[in-house]
Amino acid sequence: METSDLKNTGIKEIAEVFVDKRYAGKTVGEMEETQQITIFLVLRDDLSVLPQKNTILKLNDIIIIREPDL
């Protein structure tokens, strides 16, 4: 993808979200379904984790998300 194509990707909002006690222990799949988001990356301690649907979120993880197109 060339940089000129970036404006046509449909990305609306990308954010970093801290996982708190409400979401710790839930899987990526559960969070994506209930919150209607897509999780692209989990930052845990000094690691970058590519999330799978069964990846369990831990307290203080940072997740990189994209909200759906509205």
Provide key terms for this protein.
single chain; 70 residues; mainly beta; four-stranded antiparallel beta sheet; 1 helix
- Separation, N- and C-terminal Cα atoms: 24 Å
Shape: globular
Report the sheet with the most strands, covering strand number, pairing sense and barrel closure.
4 strands, antiparallel
Q: Classify the helix fraction into a percent range.
A: 10-25%
Number of helices: 1
Which regions are unreliable across 5 or more consecutive residues at pLDDT < 50? 1-8
What does this protein look like?
The chain is mostly beta strands and 70 residues long. Helices cover 11% and strands 31% of the residues. It is built from one helix and four strands. The protein has one helix at residues 28-35, and strands at 13-18, 38-44, 47-49, 62-67. The chain has a four-stranded antiparallel sheet, with no helix packed on it. A hairpin with a 2-residue loop joins strand 2 and strand 3. The chain is globular and about 30 Å long. 13% of the residues are buried.
Produce the secondary structure layout:
Elements: E1 13-18, H1 28-35, E2 38-44, E3 47-49, E4 62-67
Antiparallel strand pairs: 1-4, 2-3, 2-4
In short:
This protein has one helix and four strands. It has 70 residues and is mostly beta strands.
